[in-house]
Amino acid sequence: MYKIALLPGDGIGPEIVPQAVKVLEAVGEKYNREFQFETALIGGAAYDATGHPLPEETLELCRRSDAILLGAVGGPKWDSLEPHLRPERGALLPLRKALGLYANLRPATVKPSLADASTLKEDIVSGLDIMIIRELTGGLYFGQKHREDLPEGGQKAVETLEYSTAEVERVARLGFEMARKRDNRLMSVDKANVLESSRLWREVVEELAKEYPDVELSHMYVDNAAMQLVRNPKQFDVMVTENMFGDILTDLASQLTGSIGMLPSASIGGEVALYEPIHGSAPDIAGQNLANPIATILSAAMMLRVSFGLEQEAQAIEAAVNSVLEQGYRTGDIMQPGMTSLGTVEMTEAILKELR
Ligand code: NAD
Ligand code: IPM
Ligand code: MN
Q: CATH number for the domain including 163?
């Protein structure tokens, strides 16, 4: 029996998480696995109900679960709260930190049937299969932050970008290990021409590379990496980078696959792993049955593979998603001429039918 904590959160979160639950239940039935779900509040929803975006009960539930599935947090309603009460800074970041989830795996793969769905030319993206590893508990996100009033008027805002040798080494090691499981190529992305933290990053990665002589290591500056991801994304296999660079590059990479609604993620490194789509709460389409549930459903597949070692079950979900896309079913974000447009729930129904 696998205990899964569900944190739907805000915006489209409460629409997409139940879709992944239905898929997990169908997989459980088919392969005779038992999943037990327990739901907790997070983000704006938690703030509204309890006055805090990350209630202690939520953290406790996560700690006694075998894995966590999160929707998304945040939205205009909570944007002007004090920083420590905002869903992003008051809940999501502290949750990642508290659970020790220092690495975020964000695979960007182009499904054959979506090769012409990207805003990029088909031959540039078709067959794309890259793995971006984003450091998740360091960098600017977790540095010191403060503001001060200036004597001449106005204010100064300060944040620090900090990384230690150990923080870089553990995530870089994951990059090398991942490269070994794939094409033995690792691209470390930094800004070592300017940032001191990136100079340390590069030194640590270089040092670690001695333990992995079989892996071909390269370095690229982040500005060039952004350009190369659009110019020729298939040159990459595994990429590893710091927190904020990874945040930005993976939203960019998601568009290579057709939509940000397609990209799943796994946050690992602690006792319990957290799975979530890379997109946010999409307030512009929330509550309208428009959200693409596939990123969340594929995050559930990652959970089965990474946390539970259920490879066959994970593949069954991925195959069902591929097959539904091949049959021409689309949500609005990946809609193409001549295809059948489905809502969030109907897309899930189609995937369930395929699974059973
Ligand atoms: P977003 O990812 O929520 O939305 C960006 C665009 O992509 C929007 O047009 C949205 O409609 C679309 N989109 C996103 N997911 C989609 C899906 N599954 N199907 C179809 N279309 C989809 O980013 P944003 O608008 O910058 O942020 C909105 C809120 O979400 C903010 O409060 C932000 O802080 C928060 N956010 C949370 C997370 C998270 O919880 N992990 C991640 C990113 C942003
Ligand atoms: C993500 C999001 C978060 C991040 C925000 C909401 C804090 O953009 O999960 O990619 O920047 O990590
Ligand atoms: Mn992001």
A: 3.40.718.10
